[in-house]
Amino acid sequence: MNIEDLLREALSDMAHEEQPPPPGRFLQVNRGRSRRRGLALAAAAAVTVMAVGSTLVIQGLSSQAVVSKDVAEQGTGEALVPTKQGQTTLTVREGLRLSQIVEQLATATGRPLAEFKRAAKDGRALGLPAYAKGALEGFAFPGTYEVSPTSSPGEILAAMVARFNRAAEDSDLVDGARRVGRTPREILIIASIVQAESINKRDMPKIARVIYNRLNHTPEMSLKVNSTLLYGLDKSGTRASNEDLKSRSPYNTYTRLGLPPGPICSPGADAIKAALKPAAGPWLYFVTIDPKNGVTKFADSPPALDKLLEEYRKNLRTG
């Protein structure tokens, strides 16, 4: 086993340790695994993961990626800028699906898309947390990355997962999920819906509240959001047709109760924060009445919803 494999094994093992190890773990050492992890961590010290200002630098044996810590404040623009020594600076915006991310990475690096798709399937090697269930969707954290020409698809995707893991730690995702009665995976699913449905960050806590209110409603209410439905159909856009509503996909939240089975995009830090700390309020509906100017309003009853829909139709006619 080479040093790179040792490092991957150690990081993967640590990513899957959701609970602190029992005291006996420190007393009864598996010498073979302990020695391998020790070698891997020694390699990590040489390869290094360091913070430089607001940037997390992840430098592998054959590549280097730089991840912006302040990505959530960079807006939703995309950038692809050649840098020194053949490196490329790539901004992956919030709300992209994994299929869009790997296409963007393939274009940026010139590597075959198939290589990124293959690397994306190896969740353990990428260092995904256990609650990801081996699936990368939602865990490739949006941000600005500086990619060297020698960076492999696995190294690039692992850097995005590493940035997610740090964001999860910064937001206290695991304990925060427990406090609101959800699992970390459910929080990320909610955050992905919030990200997909929000035009302005200021609306995210209220949209998160709508999702919680519907999930907790008695009698039960379905979420009825187009973003999940269209994800299940592999369609883009915001509008769903009557035919779309007949879909048998598990992501059809019009016909199925509860959350969809997984995240539908990569949420940013603001969406995760909103999912953990939704605003207080009775809202059950929201309508972006003025998409051009990013105006979303909220309602707590069907009559109030009807008024918002009429306002939306009026804006369409006059816009």
Give a quick summary of the entry.
The protein has 319 residues and is α+β, with helices and mostly antiparallel strands. The protein has 13 helices and eight strands. It has helices at 3-15, 23-27, 31-47, 98-109, 113-120, 123-126, 153-170, 173-179, 184-197, 204-215, 226-232, 269-276, 302-318, and strands spanning 49-52, 55-59, 64-68, 80-82, 88-92, 143-147, 285-290, 295-299.
Give a topology summary:
Blueprint: H1 3-15, H2 23-27, H3 31-47, E1 49-52, E2 55-59, E3 64-68, E4 80-82, E5 88-92, H4 98-109, H5 113-120, H6 123-126, E6 143-147, H7 153-170, H8 173-179, H9 184-197, H10 204-215, H11 226-232, H12 269-276, E7 285-290, E8 295-299, H13 302-318
Explain this structure to me?
There is one protein chain. By secondary structure, this protein is of the alpha+beta class. It folds into 3 domains: 1-47, no CATH class; 51-170, no CATH class; 173-281, no CATH class. Helices cover 45% and strands 12% of the residues. The protein contains 13 helices and 8 strands. The protein has helices at residues 3-15, 23-27, 31-47, 98-109, 113-120, 123-126, 153-170, 173-179, 184-197, 204-215, 226-232, 269-276, 302-318; strands at 49-52, 55-59, 64-68, 80-82, 88-92, 143-147, 285-290, 295-299. It has a 3-stranded antiparallel β-sheet with strand order 1-2-3. A 3-stranded antiparallel β-sheet has the order 4-5-6, with helices on one face. A two-stranded antiparallel sheet has the order 7-8. A hairpin with a 4-residue loop joins strand 2 (55-59) and strand 3 (64-68). Helix 4 packs across helix 5, helix 9 (184-197) packs across helix 10 and helix 10 packs across helix 12. The termini are far apart. The relative contact order is 0.11. The model is unreliable at 1-7 and 17-77 (pLDDT under 50).
